[in-house]
């Protein structure tokens, strides 16, 4: 891909910082709006992360002053050629929807840093992450109805579970914008911080997660997700199966040894 194509379509930069996978959305000229190629890169990177035993956390952020303004619908629909009937139903489950599913189900903790705009799918990416830390003046926005089409990319599933029906309808049906400080107060995100303290706050969180018992963290995340559509008995049975697995890890043995020796555990993620 040449430089011109890269600047037009945007890129997703993938790198490693120790055991942390760093994913950076880079399309600053369009507030990091997601092109088809960027979505494809996200799917590929997250799918590979799922089977990478060397990773212990994932960090998702945007380059420049904004996190992500969603899917670039204007660019996708400017070619003048009408897509075939059923195009969205055929394609989106394997692209945009797959990104949200991978962030939500990945057996690694996913941390998202939000500055500026987090709109549409950008908002839902932040909501699907396990921990989102936003600047106090960041803006979370679900603009779907303002543009004349119904919500997508998991917004109708994520929002009611995070903030309840009333606030979900406020954001989805009225298109109300929510700043970072309010989002933290509502429980929409993990926390907010002044812009100057944002990177340090995220860095501390990532360091804590990346030094944790990775297998147990992933199993706990899976059990929390499972419990959202399970009875109490079903949830406890899932916990039991996950406990059976986590008790066979090296980190479980280290946790017990550290408890007996009255010291902090040194988990290896295995």
Automatic annotation (TrEMBL):
Pfam families, per database record: ECH_1
Residue stretches in coiled coil: none
Taxonomy, superkingdom: Bacteria
Family: Belongs to the enoyl-CoA hydratase/isomerase family.
PANTHER family given in the database record: EG:BACN32G11.4 PROTEIN (PTHR43459:SF1), ENOYL-COA HYDRATASE (PTHR43459)
Record's protein name: Enoyl-CoA hydratase-related protein
């Amino acid at each position: 891909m040449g430089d011109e194509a890269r600047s037009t379509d945007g890129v997703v930069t993938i790198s490693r910082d120790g055991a942390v996978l760093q994913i950076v959305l880079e399309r600053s000229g369009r507030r990091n709006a997601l092109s088809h190629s960027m979505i494809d890169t996200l799917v590929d990177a997250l799918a590979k992360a799922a089977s990478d035993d060397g990773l212990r956390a994932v960090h998702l952020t945007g380059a420049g002053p904004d996190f992500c303004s969603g899917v670039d619908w204007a660019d996708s629909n400017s070619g003048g050629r009408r897509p075939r009937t059923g195009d969205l139903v055929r394609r989106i489950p394997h692209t945009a929807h797959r990104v949200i599913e991978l962030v939500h189900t990945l057996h690694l903790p996913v941390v998202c840093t939000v500055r500026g705009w987090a709109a549409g799918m950008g908002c839902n990416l932040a909501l699907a992450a396990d921990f989102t830390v936003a600047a106090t003046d960041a803006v979370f926005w679900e603009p779907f109805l303002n543009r004349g089409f119904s919500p997508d990319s998991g917004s109708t599933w994520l929002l009611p579970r995070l903030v309840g029906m009333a606030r979900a309808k406020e954001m989805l049906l009225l298109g109300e914008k929510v700043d970072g400080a309010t989002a933290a107060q509502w429980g929409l995100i993990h926390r907010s911080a002044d812009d100057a303290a944002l990177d340090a706050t995220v860095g501390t969180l990532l360091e804590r997660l990346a030094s944790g018992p990775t297998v147990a963290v992933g199993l706990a995340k899976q059990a929390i997700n499972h419990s959202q559509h399970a009875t109490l008995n079903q949830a406890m049975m899932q916990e039991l199966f996950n406990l059976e697995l986590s008790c066979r890890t090296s980190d479980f043995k280290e946790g017990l040894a550290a408890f007996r020796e009255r010291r902090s555990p040194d988990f290896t993620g295995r």
